[in-house]
Fold these 4 entries.
Entry 1:
Amino acid sequence: MLLKIIIFLVINFAALGLGSYFTSAAVTAEWYQNLNKAPWTPPGWVFGAAWTSIMICFTVFMVYAWQLTENRNLLIALFVIQWILNVSWNPVFFKYHQVLFGLLIIVLLMVLMGYFFFAYLPHLKAKTLLVLPYFIWLLVATTLNAYILIKN
């Protein structure tokens, strides 16, 4: 079990590392600074704290899901899709300034996390609650992305 925790932690935090590569300088760049952002946009430090907590919870969820699911191929396929969507949003939004495409990516990611919750609820029961921080954060992030799309 410890090995699986380490593997999922490394993979999940690699996603965060790649995302922050595209985000860190871009947040202070002229393009992002000049955007009309949602009044509920949290301060920058909240994003790091939120994603760290989310990835720890999601790692624990994945370890339990790995142990309790019969279809590991589907679980890993969904995990890989989640990883790709998560990582791809940052360059799409911050580097290429494709706000609409970024919104599409984040909506797909939110739907996928909703699927994780409902599909694995019968098997994982209360452990499925570990997916909720990810889903809720994506809900907030989707509103931030949509606000930027609409107001700019």
Note: Residues 2-151 form a domain with the Ferritin fold (CATH 1.20.1260.100).
Entry 2:
Amino acid sequence: MTTRNMVAVGLTLVSLGLLIPGLWQPALTIVASVPFGNKPMEIFRQTQNVVQAVRSLYESGNYFVSGLVLLFSIIVPFIKAAMLGVILATKAPGPRYRLYLFVRSLSKWAMADVFAVGVFIAFLASKATDNLDAIIGSGFYYFVGYCLLSNVAFQFLHVPVPETN
């Protein structure tokens, strides 16, 4: 295995180490309040992580959106990491390169980074309202760390184009 590919494997493992708490740690807390005298009175507080968001969407009848978040923010990242192992274990250059192209195209559909941006936009939108506040949790930072390292890891991966006769 080349040094580049060892770096790719190492970064993938670290990114998975960030993904796990990124899915389970609180990502965003939304707090709604109303003015009550000189002090705001909290009327709503909800903290969600990615897994809870999928569950909440499902339970509220948003099956399609729940399925999309589940697929692109949870399942695809694990498939992508598993496929990296398969690529590196495959010895035949043709199938190895085809798997590499498949994972590269799959990466375009991994929406973890889009999900992270969506959480950040929700955070910014709530900051623009007087009676609504948002607090970004540690899960958001873990998740963003996963997104960045996962993309960098795939950039390090080197699979040569097989020679044609």
Note: The chain has one domain: 3-156.
Entry 3:
Amino acid sequence: MNIQSSSRIEHPFGSVFLAYRDRLPEVAAFVPDVAAIVVRARRELPDGTIELHNEWSSDREVPAVLSSIVRQDQLCWDDFASWAPSGLCTWRIQTRAFTEAVRCSGTTRLVADGAGTRVELSGSLTLDVEKVRGIPRLLASRIGPQLEKFVVSLVTPNLEKTNVAIARFLDAEGRR
């Protein structure tokens, strides 16, 4: 599944950039279905690029049909991001549930747009149901689409909702 999103945040590039790169743990309170974002690693490269490993956790409920193969404590994912000073971020997400079956990666580009910032997100998410342990082969065709829909609904909207959350976070700080 391709992920494409373009939106505008009514805050200057510098504020949006720092919120995305450095302040996601604080922004988490403004993202629906996200319980916390924890920085697990941070490294600055000589060219000014910052490499981050953030752990996201969700407080969303597991649908009953999936409760036998997904535990609540698996609703976490690792976000590996590399932020260039230009505002380009390449990222990869690794889910805790079905790690071997889910692939998600892409780019986020922040662009100064007048007094605001345009956020362009592009990526892909794939789920290989055949690699999901715990799903009998006979049920894969029936459970697979529901599982894919759940994973997509867990990860993809949070990528897009982060823009709204950053705007709300910066609004709450009174930054313009």
Note: The longest strand covers residues 102-113.
Entry 4:
Amino acid sequence: MVSEFNKCLDELENLLEESWTLPLASNKYIVNGNQLRSIIESLRNSLPQELKKAKEVLDAKDKTAARAKEEADIIVERAKKNSELMLSKAKKASEQILENARAEAETLISEQQITTIANERAEQLVEQAKQDAIKMRNVTITYIDGVINESEKSLGTALSTLTQLKQSYSGSKTEQ
């Protein structure tokens, strides 16, 4: 769709092409003054509409950017809460396992052989608790990475949309 502004520019070009040059002055033209005034008036009338369209495009870009930032902030906040919750659960679980290991070790301390077995068992439980804590930490980190990647994708999509809007605006601006 050709804008009113571009249509007026085309009319100006046509007017210039249809005009006559002055003898001995190839860069001076004789044009129809009434037609020229009419085209200039149309240009004046179309400029506010073109500026309004440009403002609407910029407003849409700003709204899209604000919405993308809000979504990213929400995703990051959820990720923080979920990671804190998972870390808290992992810490409680490891503390419970350690507490159980200590309680079991205390009940087995009656003889040296039992003490040796209890120490080995406690070490196994502690090692298992450490491994469980590491696994839970890795799961939490993987989850956070996923959330961050999703945030990056959302921001990338928003940026792509903004770039397309900007290019669309720039394209329509250069056509003018």
Note: The beta strands are 20-22, 25-30.
